[in-house]
Design brief:
The protein has helices spanning 35-48, 112-136, 140-160, 162-167, 169-192, 196-209, 214-226, 230-253, 266-289, 301-309, 314-324, 327-336, 346-369, 373-387, 398-409, 411-427, 431-444, 449-461, 465-478, 483-495, 499-512, 517-529, 533-546, 551-563, 567-580, 586-597, 608-621, 626-639, 643-658, 663-685, and strands spanning 12-15, 21-24. The chain is an all-alpha fold. The protein has a two-stranded antiparallel ribbon with strand order 1-2. The longest helix has 25 residues, at 112-136. The chain starts with 11 loop residues before the first strand and ends in a 9-residue tail after the last helix.
Length: 694
């Protein structure tokens, strides 16, 4: 689980048998202490476990009210705005007194000018007291008018003596503090009187003068939320959090309690992100939909092989491909085919296309055998286009030609082509196209349980769990010993959080097929989910007997060590997994998490450079491994030495979004991207140069 300001790594990610990343072993949650995420977490944990203390409220209440106190005064705006503007500026927060401070006593040799200054401050204080009295009587707009009067006095004084104001830094500072306090108070009055835009404009004016003004920032957040301007509100939240963590960075590093509770609860961050998510996800989906299916990237070879191995027909087609002939043989036969057979010679035309489609099917299968899936998919697509008579789709005899091609090709070859095309479309996440191919195959082979299982897999990826369940029941009714039906239904049960039923399916599969490595690995995952670490260990030991060089076995063993808090042993197993198969992305991600959780010398930071290297390697190995993007982005953001480096994290997430396949993956990366953009904007507003709190 990835929380919004916390990286929780007790849950490691493994490759699901359906080709998705699955969550394993939910115990011994550990927090990675890095930058922004860590400081927010530390503060939140401290105050969650500490006795609650009431904090001093500001002189004007924080809550919004629509009670205007019966005021009929028209809102009056002072021209003293400190350069602020209404609308959507994004600035940040700190603390500022809400009451005016009396000027320091003038020196014995004070001039008439000093007397004038004293008189001005006394008059401002009188007006301020009058405004607060009106506020207590709920005469909010009258109070706002008095604060405007005070601000106008200051502006008049500054205009009358601009030169003196520039030369006298102390006076300017004193007047600036008065402007901030009065403008902030007036903003509160506008909010109380239900004039949010005026209140926002005054907040902007305050934050222009003091980007670290907590009360103005908090009010701005509150108003933006009420106006459903959630992106701007999230920037305010991030600004408050950044200011708080920056103020407490030294204490938190030393393990000391921070000053005051965190300004915004985690729940507020999650709430705002949830409001922004739909728009971000829709934008990402629109971008994905604009890409033609044929141009979509395939998963890594490792992922495809793991998926293909999970089906009962894997060994048969591999054997047929090995014996069927080489790529060169099929290429030579394709080159020898006649070209330009006229369409009007229906039988010869159909026979020629059927022969070519069959040769492409066989060559594509040979490419798959050699793990050259890019070329395999290209051959299957071309063969499918021939059988579908796509070049003649507008011809009057189109249907007749299609039927003739299918007949000439033969039922078995045509079904195998549909099956492979269904798989290729599924791999490119063309779920509609995949299900069409599989359903046509089922019509021709109604008792083929493997096709039913593959149809169920497409339904699972489309989150149609009830339809997938029906298909699994149908497959098992035809063949109760179908290993792939039991295996994939166990995955469905895990997604539905029906762990005992998943365990039953896996036990049945292992009883029927003791050497089924995937079933044993999956059952080890179930044991870890149940916190049965001994059971998981025994299952992995048995799996290792069947395949001691399995990258997955070592990866799962590493996760088991990680769950026990033995990070060194975990990393060792993950490294063995990499050695067994360098194309498996999972151990790179898990090893990175082991690195950052390995205890280091007192005061020393974990080896983040090594962790980042491992995560980048995972993406190199499998550009679709979305867990690597999530973890890498958070680490890079916390270690960014300047905001330009932080912006590179947004680019990383954009790249990850291009490869997302499931709604869950889209939500994860969109959430991280939303937060990253908001944090960068907040840092700009605070005039910070980095998000790195180290």
């Amino acid at each position: 689980t990835i929380t919004l300001y916390t990286i929780v790594v007790g849950v490691l990610l493994s490759l699901d048998l359906s080709g998705k990343m699955a969550v394993n072993s939910q115990q011994n949650t550990t927090y990675i202490v890095i930058g922004l995420a860590a400081l927010a977490t530390a503060a939140a944990l401290y105050f969650a476990l500490s006795p609650k203390k009431s904090s001093s409220d500001e002189s004007l209440p924080k809550s919004s009210s629509k009670d205007g106190g019966g005021s009929t005064i028209t809102p009056v705006k002072s021209n003293v705005q400190g350069g602020g503007s209404s609308g959507s500026s994004t600035t940040t927060a700190s603390t500022a007194d809400n009451t005016s401070k009396a000027p320091a006593a003038a020196p014995p040799a004070a001039s008439n000018k000093d007397d004038d200054e004293k008189q001005l401050h006394r008059r401002i204080e009188e007006i301020d007291r009058a405004g607060k009295a009106l506020f207590k009587n709920k005469q909010y707009m009258e109070a706002a008018e008095t604060f405007t009067e005070a601000l106008d006095l200051i502006e008049s004084k500054k205009s009358a003596d601009k030169k003196a104001s520039k030369e006298d830094g102390g006076q300017k500072s004193s007047l600036t503090r008065q402007i901030i306090t009065l403008t902030n108070n007036r903003s509160a009055m506008y909010e109380k009187a239900s004039f949010p835009d005026l209140a926002l404009s005054d907040c902007d004016a305050v934050l222009d003068l003091d980007p670290a003004h907590v009360k103005a920032r908090t009010r701005r957040l509150r108003i933006l939320e009420s106006q459903k301007r959630h992106r701007e509100a999230l920037v305010e939240v991030c600004a408050l959090q950044l200011k708080y963590m920056n103020d407490n960075r030294d204490k938190l590093r030393l393990g000391l309690p921070p000053t005051g509770p965190p300004p915004v609860p985690q729940s507020k961050i999650e709430e705002l992100v949830s409001f922004i998510q739909p728009e971000e996800i829709a934008r990402a989906q629109e971008a994905m939909a604009s890409n033609a299916v044929e141009s979509r990237a395939l998963p890594s070879s490792y992922t495809i092989i793991q998926l293909l191995k999970s089906f009962s027909g894997f060994n048969k087609w591999m054997s047929d491909a090995a014996k069927g002939g080489t790529v060169g043989k099929f290429t030579s036969q394709l080159e020898d085919l006649l070209e330009g057979v006229p369409r009007k010679s229906m039988e010869a035309f159909a026979d020629n296309l059927a022969t070519k489609a069959t040769l492409l099917l066989n060559r594509g299968r040979r490419y798959a055998f050699e793990k050259d899936f890019g070329k395999a998919v290209k051959d299957f697509d071309e063969a499918y286009a021939l059988v579908e008579d796509k070049d003649g789709s507008d011809e009057s005899d189109h249907d007749e030609v299609m039927k003739a091609i299918m007949t000439a090709m033969g039922n078995d070859d045509y079904c195998r082509l549909l099956e492979w095309c269904g798989m290729c479309k599924h791999l490119r996440f063309d779920l509609k196209g995949a299900i069409q191919c599989y359903e046509r195959c089922s019509e021709l082979e109604p008792e083929n349980t493997e096709i039913l299982v593959k149809r169920a897999g497409v339904k699972m990826d489309g989150a149609n769990y009830s339809e997938a369940d029906v298909l699994f029941k149908e497959a098992l009714a035809l063949n109760p010993t179908a290993s792939d039906a039991l295996l994939h239904r166990a995955n469905l049960r895990m997604l539905q959080q029906r762990v005992p039923e998943s365990e039953t399916d896996l036990d049945t599969c292992i009883r029927l097929y003791p050497n089924n490595l995937l079933a044993r690995l999956r059952l080890a995952t179930v044991c870890m989910a149940k916190e049965d670490l001994d059971g998981a260990k025994k299952m992995l030991e048995k799996a290792e007997e069947y395949d001691p060089d399995s990258s997955e076995v070592h990866c799962y063993r590493g996760e088991l060590h990680f769950a026990k808090g033995d990070f060194s042993e975990a990393k060792s197993e993950f490294e063995k997994a990499m050695e067994c198969d360098t194309s498996n992305p999972t151990p790179y991600v898990n090893a990175a998490l082991a690195v950052v959780n390995t205890p280091s010398a007192m005061g020393a930071m974990p080896d983040f450079a090594e962790a980042i290297r491992l995560l980048e390697k995972a993406i190199e190995v499998d550009p679709m491994f979305h867990a690597a993007y999530v973890q890498l982005g958070q680490m890079k953001l916390s270690m960014a030495t300047d905001l330009s480096r932080a912006k590179e994290v947004v680019e990383l997430y954009d790249k990850g979004l291009e490869y997302c396949r499931t709604p869950e993956e889209l939500r994860d990366i969109c959430s991280m991207r939303i937060l990253t953009v908001a944090q960068i904007d907040a840092a700009h507003a605070l005039h910070m140069e980095t998000l790195n709190m180290q």
